[in-house]
Amino acid sequence: MNQLNAQCRLAARPVGLPQPSDWEYLEQPAPEPGDGQFLVQVEYISLDPAMRAWMNPGRSYVPPVEIGEVMRAAAVGRVVESHHPDYRAGDCVSGAFGVQRFAASDGGGVRHVDTALAPAPVHLGALGLSGLTAYFGLLDVGRPEPGQTVVVSGAAGSVGSIVGQIARIKGARAVGIAGGAEKCDWLVRGLGFDAAIDYKAGEMAAELRKHTPDRVDVFFDNVGGEILDAVLLRLARGARVVLSGAISQYNATAAMRGPANYMQLLVMRASMAGFVIFDYAQRYAEAAAELAAWLRAGELRSREDVVQGTVEQFPEVFLRLFRGENTGKLVLAL
Amino acid sequence: MNQLNAQCRLAARPVGLPQPSDWEYLEQPAPEPGDGQFLVQVEYISLDPAMRAWMNPGRSYVPPVEIGEVMRAAAVGRVVESHHPDYRAGDCVSGAFGVQRFAASDGGGVRHVDTALAPAPVHLGALGLSGLTAYFGLLDVGRPEPGQTVVVSGAAGSVGSIVGQIARIKGARAVGIAGGAEKCDWLVRGLGFDAAIDYKAGEMAAELRKHTPDRVDVFFDNVGGEILDAVLLRLARGARVVLSGAISQYNATAAMRGPANYMQLLVMRASMAGFVIFDYAQRYAEAAAELAAWLRAGELRSREDVVQGTVEQFPEVFLRLFRGENTGKLVLAL
To answer: Which chain A residues are Cβ-neighbours of B249 within 8 angstroms?
Structure first.
């Protein structure tokens, strides 16, 4: 067939906020799937803050994207040609297909997507890695008990918006921290959060005190920086801080800012723990089934911020994440 | 009897490194013990970095020492007069008697001291709160397994020197971080640490790499600051960071420095947890018995840095801690 493939490859390691020139746009023939492979036409690309971290050199929980490599990304697409027994042309699948129009795959890390259950973009959000990250990070690492207070930063983002809803489902109070009145209003009125704090409005410490009268038992942090420091001062005894991300720090050009109030962990006999969603791969199915059940029952709402565009437009759409322009899961629809 | 009591009372909240003028020296009649009370003549005063934190206002794991209050301190002394059935004149006791020559007590938090087992100052060190802090912090929070690598900062201090020895007793590798060649030599040759790193010699990152070929499974931190940041970069997967103190930051006049590399906790699926020794009061006896058994068997060595002086000299002796002048447990002998 040899259709034309469009790709975004990493061209340079960004310093600070990435520039469009940190990627190279290329067009070349789509790959021919070999024996045991299939060809996927990518339809939806997941845009995640973690992708910024993958652009950095050095040790992390996954190897960095190398210069010249196709930019790594989770995506949903349709099988267009297959030499693999488990995948047929027309199947809808999700996997780490990268920022490109066509990807050849041997099925590693690929899941079938049931679009009868929910539209494809939802499988990148609430039913994808965002939902799984919220699920395991909150329930396995944060372990909220009924009646306890869960605070989540980046609450209007793909992971944060699900964290708060799962907290509510499990009988905890959910308080979200997000940027802007509109997002905060959506969290409370749209998703049922108990309260939302607009960090851009100032007075964060006072707002936090007001909305966490019994202090904070679980803090699910996607942001880092000042927000992490503010919440550390509100921890309850025995609190758990779940490190999921630090979007405020990903584009720092100077040394990253550490949490100056970290000794509150000692004062409050609290802990701070990191996790990596890929470690839970054996339990994805169990979690996905529960997330899907909540979604069907209307207990969990998924919101996708789907931007129509081309592979070439990936950089500009991706950078919306760091301007806080998305509400819910940011997806590039090709 | 009305003997003369000498006291150091808190006179001002220090900014940065305390000045002698932050305490007031007073002489006044010793208290008369009432019914159910006894009078202790203090002989040895424990000098601990944590005392600096108690001088600050605001929330911590214990209330601050108030202006005008006798400076809080653990001490060992002798009962000189008693109206309490469990204490007789001549008994040797330890408790939070404060920086003063005579203290009246009702027995709250007081333990009898067996000087046949070890000299009185040891009951402020290896057999006192220092030993208990090392014991519970390492074994309950750090949980090293045989063959794992334990790194401890402030390793030549009262807690750190015991942490490394308990790690060895439990079959782990012990690597100490301390200031100066002499202290490092003592850790390795005197106490049996597997290695010691002189942070004052520079090259800390390289030394750490060299002495932790399998990375760091447990980091017991008494120091904070640059040392914490350096060790975060050497964590093994699933590592535990135990927050016991942050002596490098206690006298900071600007905002405390947070660990810039804290996101290594995410990368390495690691955790950082604080603890407060007072929470383990119900288990002190169990731990003290084990520590005493190790001491008797020669598996654990205790070193006290005993300075002869008066109550009036407390400030200058206390400040040695922040110049790193002590090796082992710093004690003021009256």
So the answer is: 263
Domain that holds residue A101: 4-124+303-333
Residue B298 resides in a domain: no
Say yes or no: B238 contacts chain A, CB-CB below 8 A: no
Instruction: Note whether A238 contacts B: Cβ–Cβ < 8 A.
Output: no
Tokens coding B114: 């067996």
| Domains identified in chain A, total number | 2
* pTM flag (> 0.90): yes
Question: In whole angstroms, what is the distance from residue A243 CA to residue A196 CA?
Answer: 20
Q: Please tell me if residue A61 touches chain B, with a CB cutoff of 8 Å.
A: yes
Q: Which residues of B touch A276 (CB under 8 A)?
A: 266-267, 269
Q: What is the pLDDT of residues A185-214, one digit of tens each?
A: 999 999 999 999 999 998 999 999 999 999
pLDDT in tens, A90-130: 999 999 999 999 999 999 999 999 999 899 999 999 999 99
Q: Which of B5, B3, B4 is nearest to B97 (CA)?
A: B5
Q: Which of residues 171-210 of B touch A (CB under 8 A)?
A: none
The 10 Å CB-count burial string (b at 16+, else e) for B125-160 is bbbbbbbbbbbbbbbebbebeeebbbbbbbbbbbbb
Give the pLDDT confidence score for residue A164 in this predicted structure: 98
Note the ipTM here.
0.91
Strands B271-274, B235-243: parallel, antiparallel or unpaired by DSSP? parallel
Q: How many Cβ atoms from other residues are within 10 Å of residue B279's Cβ?
A: 13
Domain assignment present for residue B290? The answer is no
- A270: chain B residues, CB-CB within 8 Å: 273-274
